[in-house]
Design goal:
This protein has ten helices and no strands. It has 202 residues and is an all-alpha fold. It folds into two domains: 55 residues, Homeodomain-like (Arc Repressor Mutant, subunit A, Orthogonal Bundle); 137 residues.
Length: 202
Amino acid sequence: MTSLRETKKAQTRQRISDVATQMFAARGFEAVTIAEIAESAGVSKVTVFNYFPRKEDIFFDRVPEIRSLFGDAIARRGERTPMRALRDLMTDLEQQRHPFLGLEQRYVRFWRTVLDSPALRARARELVDDLCDHLAAQIEASGVADDGPSARLTAALAVAVIREAFTGAAGRLLAGEPLAAVDAGYRAALVAGFDHLERGIE
């Protein structure tokens, strides 16, 4: 059972994120300061930094959830290979229309904000690297076959496929393509990438 303290912390984190998101949408990421976010959320700057070490992390506030999803997929993979477990996860997220993927018209502003901000683009690259490290550790902990690829290589290849499918879909969305085409492109890239990895790149 979640304690009252944990519930309040989650509510505070969400309030900061919600307030900041509205401000970013109205004025642009670069124009908003931590002090303004803190004042609007009714907390101190220290409190904001306790939840989000960097302003960019407020924008990418779903990263902890993403890390958890990836970790759970590996922990519960059973007899499946890590690559198959990750493929299944990404397929399930697409079928669920999970917000993490951002494959909806309402996320166009999100993607444009990222493209317009050097700071956000740089942080996104760092977060992908962090995710790869986290995933490699989870794969290593779950056990890897002696004759198979290393946990680090498996994680790097899987993340590369996911990133390619992800960025391709975002590009189609920004180009104004129909959502059906965005979805189809995402699925095709995901299937092709994981097919190559699971049978060995020739």
